[in-house]
Amino acid sequence: MKSDIHVCAAWESEHDRPVYTLGDACPECGAPAVNSAPAPFNPEDPYGKYRRAIKRRNRD
Ligand SMILES: [Zn+2]
Questions:
Q1: How far is the CA of 44 from the centre of ligand 1 (A)?
Q2: What is the pTM of this model?
Q3: What residue stretch is flagged as signal peptide (predicted)?
Q4: DSSP string, 12-53
Q5: How far is the C-alpha of 33 from the C-alpha of 20, rounded, in Å?
Q6: Which of 1, 15, 38, 50 has its CA 20 to 30 A from that of 8?
Q7: Which residues have a beta carbon within 5 Å of ligand 1, which is an ion?
Q8: Under a CB-based contact definition with an 8 Å cutoff, are residues 32 and 7 in contact?
């Protein structure tokens, strides 16, 4: 079975720790929730998480 666990794309700025959800949006702040499986966030690329979130949205 495929894992559908997502993590808040903006957790670094909105929360003290990653917020996980099974949905497509963070239940706490409403930001897009992205697949938690890929590589960890790159601190040198603070906007990468937003680009990924936008990409995901455009695909839907
Ligand atoms: Zn959030």
A1: 21
A2: 0.56
A3: none
A4: HHH-SS--EESSSB-TTT--BEEESSSPPPPTT-TTHHHHHH
A5: 8
A6: 1
A7: 8, 14, 19, 26, 28-29, 31
A8: no
